[in-house]
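Record format v2
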Amino acid sequence: MISKKVYIATDGFISFIDRAHPKHLHAAAQFRYFAQNSYQLYTTIVTINDVYSELSNAISPSVAKDFLRAIELSNINLLYPEESDIKRALRLITSSQSADLTFTNAVTAILCNKRSVPQICTFKYLPALFGLQSFYLPL
Amino acid sequence: MNNLLSVKQVAFILKVHPLTIRRYIKEKKLKAVKLGGNIRIMENELENFHKEVDNPTVEKNAFRTYKKIAAKQFTTEDPFLRLQGRAARLKLS
């Protein structure tokens, strides 16, 4: 059975909001698919912070505020890392040989593993951690 | 009639220190009676305690239910969908 749990990464949110983003149509289609099929969407407070900063700097602070308002009312599940998760993420980064592994990616992988979320909605390169895979729209 | 066991006997059965049994009694985790100044535990009370330790259903299930309730589903009426294409990044080149 295919899992209906998907994690939304920073670029997943940005591409949905920013209509000039090259992947905007793709992201819109993905969110429509999630809504129609009653998916459980997850994100972390670290990702929310990243999206807020990027929207505020690259687009406008009012759009960033609208994003926060929408997240507050939305059914997207927010995951909060505990102290142990942060420590695990730091250990993961220091022990990893890959230079592409960011703090956000490490926290994401750890929280997805904890909540059994197998897929992530992103358009960027994803380091292979805990079997986490990118979400693709079914044909 | 139920057999009465001393603190030492219960500690031996449960493989813990007698002080642990006294603590359980104080915390009301294990029911005991006092007979002439001596603490005695009824055998059926010990069985009940054993069952609770073996399967702590209440707390674990409460956590699981909380987790299940916490996972919300994304629907077509979600306010987040109103943000679709809300803004466009300026490309200054």
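The first strand of chain A starts at residue 5 and ends at 8.
Chain A touches chain B at residues 5, 16-21, 24, 28, 31-32, 34-36, 38-41, 55, 58-60, 63, 66-67, 69-71, 73-77 (CB under 8 Å).
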